[in-house]
Amino acid sequence: xxxxxxxxxxxxxxxxxxxxxxRNDYFRDACKADEVPEGSMKHVExxxxxxxxxxxxxxxYAIADRCGHMNALLSMGHLEAAKNxxxxxxxxxxxDIITGQKLKEPRLTPPEGMDPLPEKLSEFVYKMMNPIRTxxxxxxxxxxxxxxxxxx
Length: 152
Ligand code: FES
Prior knowledge:
Layout: H1 6-23, E1 28-32, E2 41-46, E3 49-56, E4 59-64, E5 78-80, E6 85-87, E7 94-96, E8 102-104, H2 119-129, E9 139-140, E10 142-145, E11 148-151
Antiparallel strand pairs: 1-11, 2-3, 3-4, 4-9, 5-6, 6-7, 7-8, 10-11
Bound molecules: FE2/S2 (inorganic) cluster (FES).
């Protein structure tokens, strides 16, 4: 069994904090700018973070790509560039692409055109999903240099 003394534990803690702070201290390459055409979104992974890059009105924006509801990829949803809004393809929660702020709660009923769930299953799903909260998306700073979109 390993025997930690206080100094060793403190040193390990500071090293861990230092590494996690460094991760967000400077811009990292996310993707090439020409990989994200106007009005589109792209999923990228930067240092283990899953990020949605969107281009709206010639500017790039970056928010967390895992939906604040139940983790679906927002980049697989629908972007309404004119309204700065992304809609999750899973349950329809909506988020501001610039601020990451939640704009609309998810729906707990099947989308139009889909067969309804059997009653018992529907009751179970509603009961399980109803207490789930939907959170704002984390937002990242973005800059573009030499055709490279960078985030921090
Ligand atoms: S996972 Fe996005 S709205 Fe449910």
